[in-house]
Each structure stands twice: as C-alpha cells, then as structure tokens.
Design a protein that fits this description.
218 residues; Antioxidant, Horf6, Chain A, domain 2; 2 domains; four-stranded antiparallel β-sheet
C-alpha cells in the first residue's frame, strides 16, 4: 500500500552526516520534517539546506526535529556542507541522511523498489522524484506530503505555517481557512455543536453558514 496521509512513517536505520540514525529512536516524541534531495551539489537544494539551517530556531520553538536526505554518501555531504556555509551563510545544523543505497528513498516510495547500482553514476534527473517533504507527528503518522519539482525551491515558511495549523487543530476542535496565519480567525469543526461551541470558545463565534462558523484563534 502506498504512503498516504495518516500512514505510519516507515522506521529505518541509515547513515547520516551526524552518524547512524535509527529514525524512531531519533525522532522520539517530537514532530519531524523529513525533506529529500536527489543529489549533492545541486543548486536549488543548496539554497534549501541553507534556508532550513537559518530557520532551525523556528522549528525548535515548535518542537520539530528536521532531517534531510540526499542520495549520496557521507563524504559528499561533508564537502557539500562547506559549500552551503560559503554560499548561504549557514551550514546544515541538523542531520542529512546519506541514502547512497537508496534504502530510505525506496522505503518512502520516492524511488522505484527496483532502483540499484552506484549512486555516483546517477544524475539528479535520475533521482528527480526524491524531492519530498514529509511532516510526521509524534505518533509517527504522516500528516503532510509535498512533492516539488527540481527547479522550484521549497517554501519553508509555508511548511512552518502548516505545522502551526496542525498543532493548533490537534489541540482544539478547529480547522484553519485558506491562507490562514497565526492570529487569524479559525473555523469551528462541524463535530462541535453550537451549545458546545459557546463553552469551548468563550470569545464567541460568527455563523456564516451552519457548517461555517468562525471564532478567534484559541
């Protein structure tokens, strides 16, 4: 069965820029963002890894651990980190999985199960499907899957926004509307009756339709 929202994130042990990682043990009870790259020394990915390094404090504030992945060995990751620091101002301050045997890429269905061979002989285009973002909750369920093309850099502010929404909606019986950001009104879910809403949301709520009720962010 293919990985979907609500699937349990596959566990694995893989080498990384910070040594071997047993995923479930490393993740612990934290939220996790796993974001993948087709190959080291690629231009868009270089900017992404530097951006995440600069944003690490924002992920930390939300109780989120970040882990990268690229389909190359650790030695290449080390050399790439120097380039990232030189060009982006900050080297990666989180582990990057060295998926040179394609194990995690295949486990997370980013590469076909039949993929094999020498990773150094593969081009970024050969691995172009290894451009995913997985947001994984503390219960190890996958809560978000994004897949980006190689030429389009990822918007990590959006990923932080989604994490804010997920954490808020898990804590309260609400949903977030289009383009929601911190501090905006939220939607009361249809599972909550008007009577319950009066108690649960003391700031009150506005009914636009029976199925669309807005209340200030809890």
């Amino acid at each position: 069965m293919s990985l979907q929202l609500g699937s349990i994130a596959p566990d694995f042990t893989q080498d990384s820029s910070e040594g071997p990682i047993h995923f479930n043990e490393w993740a612990g009870n934290s939220w996790v963002v796993l974001f993948s790259h087709p190959k080291d020394f690629t231009p868009v990915c270089t900017t992404e890894l530097g951006t995440v390094a600069r944003l690490k404090g924002e992920f930390d504030k939300r109780g989120v651990k970040v882990i990268g992945l690229s389909v190359d060995p650790v030695g290449d990751h080390t050399r790439w980190a120097a380039d990232i620091k030189e060009t982006q101002g900050t080297a990666p301050n989180y582990p990057i999985l060295a998926d040179a045997d394609f194990k995690v890429s295949k486990l997370y269905e980013m590469l076909p199960a039949s993929t094999s061979g020498d990773p150094s002989k593969r081009t970024p285009a050969d691995n172009q499907t290894v451009r995913n973002v997985f947001v994984i909750a503390p219960d190890k369920k996958i809560r978000l899957i994004l897949i980006y093309p190689m030429a389009t850099g990822r918007n990590f502010d959006e990923i932080l926004r989604v994490i804010d929404s997920l954490q808020l909606t898990d804590a309260h019986k609400v949903a977030t509307p289009a383009n929601w950001k911190q501090g905006d009104d939220v939607i009361i879910t249809t599972a909550v009756s008007d009577e319950e809403a009066k108690t649960r949301f003391p700031k009150g709520f506005k009914t636009l339709k029976p199925y669309l009720r807005l209340t200030p962010q809890p």
